[in-house]
């Protein structure tokens, strides 16, 4: 599967791109079922009234493999299972689009994905303020895949368009977690005054995002449990490239095809 010139331009300009109906439905169903192996007693798949957050104190879990706190549930345990990697990171359609953006034959072979990341419904709990952040760990291109429907205001992966350009120079390096706090804060507060995009969608939809894009796991005011799988594509030369300072051309490490496309239509 190939991205069109307009899609590549959209990604360069906005820092994200939504593609619909990409994931294999058998594997999304398998992931929806697998999630409940990590649920505390009393929270069950077949009773949506048990999905409402926040977690009770005794349900919270600090372990990274099945982290539960507040309204967030990051079930990372199955992230290294072969079928989970196949669901998202090496899914042939997604892989070909990622290669198109970063260069054929240049991606690190994935051994795991992050896992299944959920946001519990807020129920009667007040919604929280929207506040963007960037992920600091080294990678080039993120992908979020929805394994179940995510209605509007249902806890989507919320993005701040164009913020990748503003955040990119706010670091000492290209890819490390070494932000220059004063500059990063300035950009963050500025973008918090912009209207973000709620990337709601259906099971099977994916969102690509640039590694320095401002984003958040948005509040979930729906009755649905927000369930997503995440992976971060890296190029094989990241060990070296990550040390280098932000480049004049922020697309230097991307594919020739993507680089050749103007950010703005004439
Ligand atoms: Fe994040």
Order of helices and strands: HEHEEHHEEEHHEEEEHH
Give the integer mean of the pLDDT values.
97
The general outline is globular
SS class: alpha+beta
Q: Quick one: CATH class?
A: Mainly Beta
Work out the count of structural domains: 1
Please tag this protein with its features.
266 residues; alpha+beta; Jelly Rolls; 7-stranded antiparallel beta sheet; 3-stranded antiparallel beta sheet; 10 strands; globular; binds fe (ii) ion
Q: What do you see in this structure?
A:
The structure is a single chain. The protein is an alpha+beta fold and 266 residues long. It has a single domain (5-259), classed as Sandwich (Jelly Rolls). Helices cover 23% and strands 17% of the residues. It is built from eight helices and ten strands. The protein has helices spanning 5-14, 25-34, 82-87, 92-102, 163-167, 181-191, 238-241, 256-259, and strands at residues 16-19, 66-69, 72-75, 115-119, 141-146, 157-159, 197-198, 206-210, 215-217, 226-233. A seven-stranded antiparallel β-sheet has the order 1-8-5-10-4-3-2. A three-stranded antiparallel β-sheet has the order 7-6-9, with no helix packed on it. A hairpin with a 2-residue loop joins β2 (66-69) and β3 (72-75). It is globular. 38% of the residues are buried. The mean pLDDT is 97. The structure holds fe (ii) ion.
Tell me briefly what this model is:
The chain has helices spanning 5-14, 25-34, 82-87, 92-102, 163-167, 181-191, 238-241, 256-259, and strands at residues 16-19, 66-69, 72-75, 115-119, 141-146, 157-159, 197-198, 206-210, 215-217, 226-233. The protein has 266 residues and is an alpha+beta fold. It has a single domain, classed as Jelly Rolls, CATH 2.60.120.
